[in-house]
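Lecture notes, unit on protein representations.

Consider one protein chain, 421 amino acids long.
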Amino acid sequence: MRSENAMSPGSFRHADGGRVTSLRNAATVDGQLVDVHITGDRVAAVAAAGDGPVGERDLDLSGYLLLEAPAEPHTHLDKALSFDEIRPPLGDLRTAIASWEEYNPRLTVDGIADRARRVALHMLSNGTTAIRSHVNLLPGDAPLRGVQALVRVRAELAAVMDIQLAVLAPYAVDDAAIHAALDLGVDFVGGHPHNTPEPTANLRRLLRIAENRGIGVDMHTDEQLDPEMLTLEQLTHLVRDRPPTRSVTASHCASLGMTRPEVRARVTAAVAAAGIGVVALPITNLYLQGRDHPVATPRGITAVRALLDAGVPVAGGADNVRDPFNPLGRADAFETAMLLVTAAHLTPREAYRAVSTGAREVMGLPAAGPVPGAYADLLAIRASGLEDAIATAPTDRFVLRRGRLVAASRSERSTVTRPPD
């Protein structure tokens, strides 16, 4: 089935943003071998792998698993990779916030943009073709430094990935700064009402701004383990009558995982009825939460299973990547999927769906994947199956965005089984 004319897995001669006509001999999650034919930016057909004519811009994926490309529904590009600059103490959420705020005066537009660009391209090389990033309004006379940096990076990378921006508005910032961020091109209004002196009033204020601007919201919601703090439930009541075109996303929702079963059932039903999408963020929540419980330390993760069972759109995100809120992180959706399996007890298919189809749904993106009619945002990874891909996260990958090959990577490994004679 293989032809010398096809681009082989070892070849990188078309890793230049050029269009790919067909993907040959790709394995699906169901174990089938298929040829995927692409016309323009969409998948035209999927058929059993065969011996048909092979074009010069075809890609031979023998030994590769073909998947819908991941999407990142919640990260912080403005903070990413700042850990080595800040060298913060390791600790809980308050410690991380204090470290970030203390460093704020030294942040520059160019510095933020450089770190953001590097991590966004790292995500792209790992397969992520769409990102939603929150961006802080900063204290002082230049609150828009992060916004200016990320708007710049979004424009620079527009040809290879989609980047959405949500303003993360501190409690003390005035409305004018939020509107200024939106005027620069930020897509969503966001904040962290649960972490303010007046959660309900702050939530209403942010929703009012979004309503006046006619845009969606993405709130940091209940990023703590107090089961009595359920800003999420307040959010359901306040957005029930919003037009469906104005999306509402609640990220974190960690306290929901600590509630009694009857409360959890009530809240998840309300979330489903309100059409709110929820983003689970295992790596940062597991790192930050529960430090004041040295015995039987609780998991800092939302009630993912209950939300899925209630029909809520659920996505999984990486959140912070090597900053005061998480000193680690690989900027890889397979890391998030692995943690959703181990910490949230999802199946591997459910976990990968959360970082791909579920993420795209929450982000309001069109359907993608190896399905006729869908956008050709695709990830091919050298793996024997989905469990193998999530467990080992192989480096060998090809990434397509809208039918163009935008990233390719491979690894080399050598092992000595016995010393030389």
